[in-house]
Amino acid sequence: MLEALRKKIQEIMPQVDGVIALRRVGKGTAPHLFLPGDDLSELALSPQFPLPTPVRIIQAKYPDKRFAVVVRGCDERQLVEMAKRRQIFLDKLTMIGVACTKEQAEYCRCEMPFPKQVDIGETVEGIPQTFLDDFLAKPREERLAFWKHAFAKCIKCYGCRNICPECFCKECVLEDNLWVTSGTVPPPFPMFHLIRAMHTVGKCVACGECERTCPADIPLTILYKLLKRDVETVFHYYAGADPNEPPLMDSTIFLADMDMLHPPRR
Amino acid sequence: MEYRNVPTICTYCGTGCGLLLEVLDGQVVGTYPDYAHPVSEGHLCIKGWNAGAFVHHPDRLTKPLFRKGNDFVEVSWDEALERVAGELKRIRDQYGPDAIGLFGSAKATNEANYLMQKLARAVIGTNNIDHCARLCHAPSVAGLAMTFGSGAMTNSIPELENSRCILVTGSNTTEGHPIIGARIMRAKERGATLIVVDPRDIQLARFADFHLRQRPGTDVAWINGMIHVILREGLENKEFIATRTENFDALWEVVKEYPPERVEQITGIPADQLAAAARAYARAESAAIVYAMGITQHTTGTDNVVSLANLAMVTGQIGRPSTGVNPLRGQNNVQGACDVGALPNVYPGYQSVTDEKVRQKFLEAWGAAPPARAGFTVTEMVDLAGVGAIRALYIMGENPLLSDPNIHHAREALERIEFLVVQDIFLSETAQFAHVVLPAASFAETSGTFTATDRRVQLVRQAIPPIGESREDWQIICEIARRLGTPAGPYGKFDYAGTAEIMDEIAALTPIYGGISHRRLEELGFLQWPCRTPDDPGTPILHTEQFTRGLGRFQPVHYRDPAELTDKEYPFILTTGRVMFHWHTGTMTRRSPKLHKEVPEGYVEINPLDAERLQIGKSERIRLVSRRGAVETKAWITRRVAPGVVFMPFHFAEAAANVLTNAALDPVAKIPEYKVCAVRIEKITEVERPEKLVAARAGAS
Amino acid sequence: MSSPESNVQQPPYEPKIIGFLCNWCSYAGADLAGTSRLSYPPNIRIVRVQCSGRVSPELVLKAFHEGADGVIVLGCHIGDCHYIDGNHRTSKRIPMLRQLLAYAGIEPDRLRLEWVSAAEGERFATIVKEFTETVRELGPIKRVMVTG
Questions:
Q1: What is the pTM assigned to this prediction?
Q2: Are residues B19 and B90 in the same domain?
Q3: Which of B104, B672, C53, C124 could bond to C86 as cystine, CB 3.0-4.6 Å?
Q4: Do B597 and A162 touch (CB under 8 A)?
């Protein structure tokens, strides 16, 4: 697979100013900008590290250059949501789609481990999100205790926000003492985490990076994925599906019937 | 056009997390966690995430500076180096080598520290080399050497999560060493018993099975109390005691005087809880002790450490995975700076300076070595500077003016000194007193190795070239040494192609680093010392078969009161420490916008009951007074501290906790008692605030 | 540990409700209820906002965090927004926030969204009455939140 990707990059390189992909560094992998003529022997594939953030940083500095980027399903959907918000520019970007392997999909508990256009790899089926229903089967008090315990472990590293490609605001409400008391660890329940959860609505593509980088092992994706599922079933809004659609909040979709959403009351 | 990520090691605490510096066109633009790192596994704390934030700060020193009156003027490197070398030479010739003192740095690489002590010993000819380890874990080095024979963390960080019982004391781990704290919480989730002994209601205490709140400074009493319970109830590990230790008989003679009921009177810890915690610790399949400066920064620091060692040995909770006595070292490279000999009493690898054989070895290797007597410690050097016995100080990357106890005293000393050179990345409070300031490169701009708290030697990689005209520490030291004249031994040179070559020299002269080289580190990721030969895989757990000194030695000690007790005039105990969002004297974190935003100013934690009694309101500005000085700061009313105790972080120059702290020293390790001193709280009356009065009058009219 | 408050007789529970009312419709609706002398429970504390679309999740969560037992957001009917589509946002945001509260284990019925026009004084009074009773049944938020 890596060999196929290498070949594809070599093929595309003459048409672009650089290719953003993962590269082996130290014992792991990290985002890298490969330039024409660069040695591709350290090119890597991994389910870790979102690439859209480097795309945003590089495009901001070089708006006129044309880049290619290696995208997994999650990367592609993130880029689309970012493009809708003018954070990256799709017309200056060539995507090289990679379908993740079964193992990688399982590692990420990914529902959709492939981009729309697959250049490399074989598409495998997504992982059913049954753990969400398992979580919802808990009674309300238990859910509350679950999150209170989980959030009490938070050391306020902001890792969930920092790693998230969709968190690009220059001023972040989480840093504002008005909403989340500054300098307090753990942040007071429910301010930090529920604010962040709401801010992922309509943007989160469930890549799972936030949970992976959380030192306190807080299962954040349960919360985010439940919200994502609601957005999909009720508003028929699929984050990252269509770059021509406006962002969820800007859209004129509304709930005609207020009872279309039935929050679990138990 | 260039975008890459450079894997390196975090510059803040001793955990040694891996991080990636994100570099765009020679600028550090961000930080990523390193998923492949064995300790941090893709996790970082807020400081790690912001580790690159100060690198391009406009306050960075970019040119050498000379002091002119109260100002500084920029000079060329040649001028600066000539002057430093010239002055050092003059003072050495005039007053002898021992009139010069050097500070290594727990923030600098092993390579730089090695060269610094080599400069002191082989070029200048003095053992007056020390660094801030004195102020954090000198008692660990001394106490664990006495009992086990090796003064380092016995086990490794990743093991902690498999421990069945963890005793955390004197460490606010989730704030001081967040990623280790996360491991401890993970162990708790996996069913471990968590015992937290801390006067403050820290985050870990919320998850603890036992939270024992001792009166600050009474640690020996509760540790002896636990040993008392264990021995009285026959929970000791008899086989371990018989085969692995010595001097056990003396132990009961001491601890018999510490039944839990008496301990309760001294410490305030309920007797039944202490006994239950002791049982849990003794009975656990594997039990680890984790401690930090709450244990060491006392006049009884060494006593506290040996008591913990006694506790571990009596239960045999050492020498196996997930057990041990684990001091969490503060600085990213405080372990390494000690290892490579930036201490006044040992050469690299803890080889004693008073051992004539050792001295001979270094004399042959370098071609010069100082007389076989220990040099002065940092606290002593500052004292001696005050009385004119130390005439010149060369300080690399440390800020004693804010970190030393009783700051007023330190300031007077530095004002008096004949020649002060400070090599730093920012113009720190100390640098403002310097005659010459040398601009150094930060961790992002240098290469070498850091040694994390679990003896883990790891590569630091250069991400960007040094900012402005700043230079890497090792290069500056080499320049000065060459100007002073280097000795003629086979390892006497100060001329290296790179830091890898310096590490090879360290390996050749330091048995515990014998098998460490940059090439191997590149290949393996890390090596934990002792690592004696090029095929030695390193040692994750110490004392497995036998203790470093052979048999573990029980060192029973009696409880002594802290140096300063509360009285009518100074009724509160002040204890100091860190907060999550800042680092030490704040030179870097207070220049990192996101960290500064979290805690922009100093404060003092006061219990609501005390606040009510003294009628102190939320965030009211108050004055804290000790026998040594007074500071004004903001009151934070919280149950995190017990009644009668106040807590103050020491990061803030404008509300410096160390104006108040007591410089009384531990007799063995010479560490000052930062954790206990007596203070009183004064309200700031309206009369003292003319601007408020004026405002009030204006409002009334 | 006994706290000073524990000796004090606790007054019977009266729910505290924060109402975020749109300036153009609902606030005028509340005004109409008042001038029409319609009675409604005094538990609601009204915060006038320019548009219900301005009510960010932080505002609602902060109200709960500070001890509000219920939060009600009232805006213009869809199609009547003074800013054309401000309430379209509200119509997505508040139901989603209710979902989130439920997932986090906080009773979603503590948060309610309704449309009230300037002419609907009676509707306003009815909704406030109903909502106050709902929140009364749910009990104090203190039971749910961690403080300190």
A1: 0.92
A2: no
A3: C53
A4: no
